[in-house]
Amino acid sequence: MDQERTADNDLIIAPANPTTLRQTCLERRAQRNCQRILKSDAAIAMGGIITFGTEAQAVIQALSRAEQRAMYRSIGERLAERLNTTLTGLVVHNDEAAPHAHFQMPGYDLDGVPLSKTVTRRSPARYRTLRAKSWPRRG
Question: Does the N-terminal or the C-terminal CB of the chain have fewer CB atoms within 10 Å?
């Protein structure tokens, strides 16, 4: 982490706090008429990271701040849409070796299904192309 570039980080969507996430999950679960209550240790959020290959990193770094915001938001929103959920946090890190963003989503989708049931080990491979489709190649 480069302390001199910390100001280049960008808080696009402030991550939701645990109380808000838990309430969102409870509301979503209520749609399914679950017979059991939400466990105290249930996953109420899913976090992830948006990264790029080495060739794309130079292109990303050459984008203006506004273009980077639009790109990361587009990728995050498309991923949330694909997972049938919403984006509740998005933070860009430009102070490290490679530009990337961390995202947060509620642990239950819009139909009240836990993301742990829909996101599997094979899921990342299916979502890799979202980056390319969300933001056309430049230069």
Answer: C
Residue 119 lies in domain: 3-134
Q: For the whole prediction, is pTM greater than 0.85?
A: no
Q: Can you read off the two tokens belonging to residue 12?
A: 């696009």
Q: How far apart are CA 47 and CA 105, in angstroms?
A: 6
In a domain, 79, yes or no: yes
128 phi/psi in degrees, rounded to 5 = -60, -40
Residue 63 to residue 128: CA distance in whole angstroms: 21
Instruction: State which residues of the chain have pLDDT below 50.
Output: 125, 131-132, 138-139
What's the burial of 65, exposed, middle or buried (CB within 10 Å: 0-12/13-18/19+)? Answer: exposed
pLDDT digits (tens, 9 = 90+) for 98-123: 999 999 999 999 999 999 998 876 65
